[in-house]
């Protein structure tokens, strides 16, 4: 928890630096504004470094729970809550009906579609393909 105090301190110091930068901007003094911006950048870098150390600390302990928390933080994984099981009494019947459709015997004979006599298959030359692709990519 020691690192939590450090992070909170850095967060509040970054807020103070933001306020100082905004004040310097409103004052119109370019030199003060430049210095305030530089100090804000340094404060943000320090806060990020502190946060990085806190996350790395999860992996340096022998506590697997903290390690997984660190992984979830790094990957931005939000564990999903399992939805409660359905209490609808018709659910088993619906599932049986859904899966039973695969067990039904199909007595229809597969037939091949017949094409009209004047049907010509599509043929393209490599030049046609290149022209079509170049028109599509632009």
UniProtKB/TrEMBL annotation:
Is Transcription given among the entry's keywords?
A: yes
Give the protein name, as stated in the record: DNA-directed RNA polymerase subunit beta
Keywords for this protein: DNA-directed RNA polymerase, Transcription
Organism of provenance: Dissostichus eleginoides
Gene Ontology CC entries for this record: DNA-directed RNA polymerase complex
> Quick check: keyword Transcription in the entry?
yes
């Amino acid at each position: 928890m020691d690192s939590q105090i450090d992070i909170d301190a850095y967060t509040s110091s970054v807020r103070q630096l933001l306020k100082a930068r905004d004040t310097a901007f409103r004052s119109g003094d370019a030199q003060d504004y430049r210095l305030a911006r530089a100090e804000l950048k340094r404060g943000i870098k320090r806060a990020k470094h502190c946060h990085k150390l806190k996350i790395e600390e999860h992996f340096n302990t022998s506590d697997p729970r903290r390690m997984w928390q660190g992984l979830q933080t790094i990957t931005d994984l939000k564990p999903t809550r399992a939805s409660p099981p359905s209490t609808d009494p018709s659910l088993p019947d619906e599932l049986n009906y859904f899966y039973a459709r695969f067990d039904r015997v199909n007595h229809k004979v597969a037939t091949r579609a017949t094409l009209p006599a004047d049907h010509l298959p599509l043929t393209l030359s490599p030049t046609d393909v290149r022209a079509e692709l170049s028109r599509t990519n632009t």
